[in-house]
Design goal:
The chain is α/β, with parallel strands linked by helices.
Length: about 250
Amino acid sequence: MSRLLAVPLALALYLHLVVLGLISLGWNTAAMLLYPLLPARRRLAVGRAGIAHGYAVFWRLAAWTGMLKIDSSALDALRNERGIIVVANHPSMLDALILVARLPRSACIMKAELMRNVFLGAGARLAGYIRNDSARGMIRLAVEDLKHGGQLVIFPEGTRTTQQPVNPFRPGVTLIAKLANAPIQTVFIDTDSPYLGKGWPIWRLPPLPIVFKVRLGQRFAPQKDSDALLAEMEQYFAAGVKPPRRPSAP
C-alpha cells in the first residue's frame, strides 16, 4: 500500500476510535446517573442492553465505512438463552466487544483496574460485570449471576493469544460451570488481522478491512471433575482454532 493511501486510511481509523470513545464515554456518563435510580435487577438488564446496543451501533458504522467486516450472526442463536457460559478464544482486544454486542444478557469478567476506567467503569458496574481481583469473589458472583439467568462471557486464555493455537487455559470457568450447573458454549473467533492482538498498538494501521468471523462450537455439560473438563476444552480449542495468515501492516 502506498504511503499516499495510508495517510487517509490512518486518519479514518483514528476517527473510528474517537467515535468508539465518545460512545463509551456517553454511555458511561448515563450509567453513572442511572445507577442510583434503578433497582438491582433492572440495573443489570439496562446496563447490559445499553452496552450491547452501543457496540452494535459502532460495528454497523465501521462495516458501513468499509473499515471492518464482522460476521457474528451465529451468536443470535444464544441471544435469549439463560444461565449459559460463553467461552471463546482471544485473538484481539476487540473480542469482548464483538460478543457482548450480540449477547445483551451477558456479563464479562474484567480486570479490576478497568472498573476505574472512565470509558468503561460506570457502564461495567451498572451491567454487573465481575471483577477478577478475588478468585473466590469472582466465582461466587459468576455463579449467582448464572443462577439468576444471566450469561457469562469468559476467555479462558486469560489474555490475548500469544502462542498458537491458544494459550494454556486458566482454571475457573469449569469450576463456575460445575457450581452453577451451567452448560459451556464454545465460540471460535477467526481473524487474519493483527489489529489489537498482543503487542499491536491501538493507533497502528493494520491491513484493511479488518475481518472477524464468529463460529459456534461444541457445547460442554458441567462435570464433577472440573480440571479434566478444562483440559478437554483446551484440546478442543487447540484443534478447532483456525491459524491466522497475517499479512504485514502497510
